Structure to design on (612 residues):
């Protein structure tokens, strides 16, 4: 179509050679006085799932206002940023009288179904395993932005002297705007978790439990939030054993897995995109609570991530893995401390957005049987993309070395 | 030293996207013409939307060693819904350089297919060595300040009506492209942009 367009240009060009004469001298020319336009009405086109009221709310203009093109361009950008729409275009139509215009907001709605897949291989602390995870979510339930998602994670041992095996299945219902409040959000979920691990020093753990979770959160100021979560487990089959720094071996059912367990979390997020941040920070600290189980390795109680864009690449410093701010969740496997270097790939028909990345990192795992610190360091390399066919994918390999040997 | 009226243009060359830049010389000033810019397919519809569409052209002239000068030309095109004509206003570094009305879309297309950017650089100030013109054209550019504002809005995005708060939709390729340009360090970005460089040419001294 572009070629036809250019051909059309060329065909008509011949008749317009006089126009192609040099432009007049700058100071001699005045722009024509523009007739001010007035908004008669604002209408929508192309919206099937989304109400016109919702769309109109993003344009800070009303009927009777003078047409402000700056406002229209800003609204176009803001709305383009929403996941509700594939594209947003504004156009004007003639109103009832000269100078009165109808602003038409033409949208192409995006699918509310989100798919996310994780496929990785990792060799860590004498354990080789495959990591498989998937998430399927509907993000505009009832046409009101409620979310239901189903997530499954499997860490399958492949080889090695140590064991690390985990299975996790969860179903969540999320209300990002509880009772239509812009401040409150809530999550209700059911989850089943099974996990066992044992390293070469004898540290071990096992868990097999179903649980129900409820979280109520409140957003504070522009970017922060505070949430309270309660977890109920009908049976809490959980035990762990670990070496301590004094050389003693402690066997326990961790207190944080009591029934019910209470979690208080405080955090903030100024990132522009949870999957492909180009800037911003996330931070979360949990107290008295549970480890997030959706990450194959379990998750730290403190999480921090900051991204910079420099020289065509993205640099991300991470503590505690990838973030799950507010009610969101992310799938991923990271070391405790990591610095990620990522470069974007050119978008195409299949990959709509993508980055390959390398991520050196470091993690403290506990203590060895001799009471020394047990830590690992290593490198992760992968490719993360938003694809038209599969949704989000993250393919990676992660290898670490036991630094205590 | 006076420079000649003769301008030795060794043919234009496209750097990217098959666009071609040709040096032009009028009234002692060096300019450019950009042919065959691969505009987005939806441009004709955009042009008749009734909203102002802006073409932002950054033109730089350089020799083998350095950039010798840079100018910014902005061409604002607006369709009058009632008269069904197009007003075209060109500015050079912020000063209005030309203003006229085109009768229909084919005329606008003709203008865009051989985009004239005249009167940019005083020939007298340019050395008689091999020069090139580089033209970067952006459609409806967004400056960094506005982008920061939008980014903040996206990050804040706690609008009660919004389905999900995960920030930008990564399926929106246009928005992503703009973000990537800012990440690259550009001060002005756009959903569509193209760049091309002329073949070397030389301004011959008058004999």
């Amino acid at each position: 179509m572009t070629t036809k367009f250019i051909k059309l240009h060329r065909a008509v060009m011949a008749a317009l050679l006089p126009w192609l004469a040099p432009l007049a001298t700058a100071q001699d020319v005045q722009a024509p006085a523009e007739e001010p336009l007035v908004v008669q009405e604002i209408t929508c086109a192309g919206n099937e799932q989304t109400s016109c009221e919702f769309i109109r709310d993003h344009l800070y203009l009303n009927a009777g206002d003078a047409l402000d093109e700056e406002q229209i361009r800003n609204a176009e950008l803001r709305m383009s940023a929403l996941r509700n729409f594939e594209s947003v275009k504004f156009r004007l139509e003639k109103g009832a009288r000269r100078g009165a215009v109808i602003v038409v907001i033409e949208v192409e709605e995006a699918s509310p179904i989100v798919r996310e897949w994780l496929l990785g291989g990792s060799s860590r602390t004498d354990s080789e395993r495959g990591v498989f995870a998937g998430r399927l979510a509907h993000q505009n339930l009832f046409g009101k932005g409620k979310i239901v998602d189903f997530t499954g994670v499997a860490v399958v041992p492949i080889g090695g002297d140590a064991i690390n095996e985990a299975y996790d299945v969860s179903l969540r219902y999320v209300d990002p705007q509880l009772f239509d409040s812009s401040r409150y959000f809530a999550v209700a979920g059911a989850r089943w978790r099974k996990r066992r691990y044992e390293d070469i020093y004898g540290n071990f753990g096992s868990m097999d439990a179903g649980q129900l979770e409820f979280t109520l959160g409140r957003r504070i100021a522009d970017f922060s939030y505070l949430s309270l979560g309660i977890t109920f487990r009908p049976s809490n089959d959980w035990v762990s054993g670990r070496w301590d720094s004094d050389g003693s071996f402690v066997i326990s059912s961790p207190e944080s897995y009591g029934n019910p367990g209470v979690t208080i979390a405080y955090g903030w997020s100024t990132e522009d995109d949870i999957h492909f941040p180009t800037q911003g920070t996330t931070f979360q600290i949990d107290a008295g609570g549970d480890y997030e189980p959706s990450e194959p390795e379990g998750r730290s109680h403190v999480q921090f991530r900051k991204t910079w864009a420099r020289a065509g690449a993205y640099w991300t410093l991470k503590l505690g893995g990838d973030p799950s701010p507010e009610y969101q969740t992310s799938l991923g496997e990271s070391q405790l401390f990591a610095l990620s270097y990522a470069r974007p790939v050119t978008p195409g028909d299949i990959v709509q957005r993508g980055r390959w990345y390398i991520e050196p990192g470091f993690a403290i795992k506990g203590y060895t049987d001799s009471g020394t610190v047990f830590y690992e360091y290593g490198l992760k390399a992968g490719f993360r993309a938003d694809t038209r066919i599969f949704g989000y994918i993250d393919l990676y390999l992660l290898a670490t070395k036991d630094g205590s040997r | 030293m006076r420079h000649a009226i003769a301008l030795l243009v060794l043919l234009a060359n496209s750097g990217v996207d098959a666009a071609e830049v040709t040096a032009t010389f009028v009234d002692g000033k060096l300019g450019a013409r950009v042919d065959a810019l691969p505009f987005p397919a939806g441009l004709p519809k955009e042009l008749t939307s009734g909203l102002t569409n802006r073409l932002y052209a950054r033109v730089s002239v350089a020799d083998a060693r350095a950039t010798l000068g840079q100018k910014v030309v902005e061409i604002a095109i607006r369709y009058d819904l009632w008269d069904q004509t197009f007003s075209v206003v060109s500015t050079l570094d912020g000063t209005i350089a030309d203003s006229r009305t085109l009768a229909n879309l084919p005329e606008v297309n003709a203008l865009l297919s051989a985009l004239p950017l005249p009167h940019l650089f005083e020939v007298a100030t340019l050395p008689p060595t091999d020069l090139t013109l580089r033209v970067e054209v952006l459609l409806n550019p967004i400056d960094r300040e506005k982008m920061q504002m939008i980014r903040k809005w996206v990050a804040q995005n706690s609008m009660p009506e919004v389905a999900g708060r995960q920030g930008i939709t990564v399926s929106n390729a246009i928005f992503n492209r703009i973000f990537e340009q800012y990440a690259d360090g550009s001060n002005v970005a756009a959903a569509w942009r193209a760049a091309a460089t002329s073949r070397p040419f030389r301004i011959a001294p008058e004999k």
Notes: Residues 3-141+190-205 of chain B form one domain. The first strand of chain B starts at residue 3 and ends at 9. DSSP finds four helices and 13 strands in chain B.
